[in-house]
Design brief:
Layout (H helix, E strand, L loop, with lengths): L1 H9 L1 H50 L12 E2 H10 L3 H10 L3 H9 L2 E2 L4 H9 L4 H12 L4
Antiparallel strand pairs: 1-2
Helix pairs in contact: 3-7
């Protein structure tokens, strides 16, 4: 009993009550702060997700860069077969052998393996108004022929 009276006289119960109220205020303040941080984090996550979706959408609009097509050499027989299949053999050979460019004639007649990037081939194709696409198509056909 004396202890109870001493605590009351010192105001300890009142002090305990004030501490309890202070604790509750801290808890409410921290809870509000955590909720605010959670909401901000959720908003940030939604923004990041939205931006990631937009990046994915925009990335899909960028055409993939195609590496330059490399064409392996083809044999004289493969090239002539491809020209025959395209219906160009007689006309091409007539243009080559009917012309005045002896170097072109020798190159065409004596070459064993033809290379797609050869200067004679490209100059002759240009003189015949052939596009790169047409020459590439002939080259692909030649690659499919037996050497």
């Amino acid at each position: 009993m004396e202890l109870e009276q001493l605590c009351q006289s010192l105001g300890i119960p009142q002090f305990i009550s004030q501490l309890s109220d202070f604790r509750d205020e801290l808890i409410r303040a921290h809870a509000a702060e955590i909720q605010s941080i959670t909401l901000a984090s959720q908003a940030k996550d939604a923004t990041i997700s939205s931006q990631a979706a937009e990046i994915t959408r925009l990335t899909g609009l960028i055409p993939e860069e195609q590496p330059p097509q490399e064409y392996p050499p083809v044999s004289r027989g493969q090239l002539r077969q491809a020209l025959r299949i395209a219906g160009l053999l007689a006309g091409i050979e007539a243009a080559i052998f009917g012309g005045t460019d002896d170097e072109l004639k020798i190159w065409y007649q004596d070459t064993v393996m033809f290379h797609r990037d050869n200067r004679f081939l490209n100059a002759f194709a240009a003189s015949q108004n052939m596009t790169e696409e047409q020459v590439n198509t002939i080259w692909k056909t030649a690659m499919d022929q037996q050497p």
